[in-house]
Amino acid sequence: MATAVISHEEEVRRLQRREGWKRRLPILPALLFTIAVTQIPFLFTLFYSLTDWRIDTVDPRQFVGVENYVSLSGDKFFLDAAWISVQMTVMAVMGSLIVGTGLALLLDRKFFGQGFIRTLLITPFLVMPVVAGFMWKTQMFNATFGVINWVLNTIGIDSIEFATKYPLASVVVVLIWQWSPFMMLIVLAGLQGQDASVLEAARVDGATAWGTFRQITFPQLRPFLELGTLLGAIYLIQVYDHIEVIVGGQPGAKNLPFYIAQRSIGGGNRFGLASSYSIIVVIASIIIANIGLRVLSGLLEDNS
User: Fold this and answer.
1) Which domains can be identified in the chain, with CATH numbers?
2) Which residues of the chain have pLDDT under 50?
3) Residue 21: CB atoms within 10 Å
4) Full-prediction pTM beyond 0.85?
5) How many Cβ atoms are within 10 Å of 103's Cβ, its own excluded?
6) Taking each helix axis from N to C terminus, what angle separates 271-303 and 256-263, rounded to the nearest 10 degrees?
7) Are 75 and 162 in contact (CB under 8 A)?
8) What pLDDT is attached to residue 98?
9) 62 - beta bridge partners?
10) What is the crossing angle of helices 76-107 and 271-303, to 10°?
């Protein structure tokens, strides 16, 4: 009897495994393709980071182990670029998250032209980074023709060359402008997924709008805010286009990706060293994303 029960359980598990593979089989080609185009280049980059590879000499590529990584601690320019990357990523992610949440709250209600307004607000995220950089540099930040300086001049304030005087802030402003719609869509999905009966019960019980948001809506948005933070941090730490176009790589806004490009295809020709920098960027992306999630989780727990 016991043997029959065990055989039956094994048969059930075998059928479950078979069904599981049947469900996974259709997505297996996509999974293999994703692994091929992401992990294989990463493994090559990891290998190159352990070599002294230059293309401006005829010397063969030499294996140097972790020497490239050891030299990072003494590279002042690398450390400066790393610190700028951290500042830029944190400010851009937090700024776009705050603005996007505000926009989502405004759109989470019925009003005339809601669809049209939502489409307009999404537009900045659809603009190519290079185009966005040129637009802000020439039409907004320009000391002679820029809209911002025109407004300042009308109230008696002299023109400011923002991209030169405040390079980091200029790039962050453009990143917030471009990424706020993305955060808005994520938060708006969370707002529209709320249980209307719970919100109505809170209003009937006399809860204020702020109280309802703080005690019901805000905690429910937690996974959506965490998702926005994670995706924003992973992408924004890799920003290159905006820096190249808006500030031209000035020291005050030169982040790790820009510095890596300079050390490799930008004239440095140190591809082995640049590969080690790239690995550091990947690690930094993971660290910053996790820190951002932990900080945000702590804030949400304090307000839940």
Assistant:
1) 82-303 (1.10.3720.10)
2) 1-2, 5
3) 10
4) no
5) 21
6) 170
7) no
8) 92
9) 52
10) 40
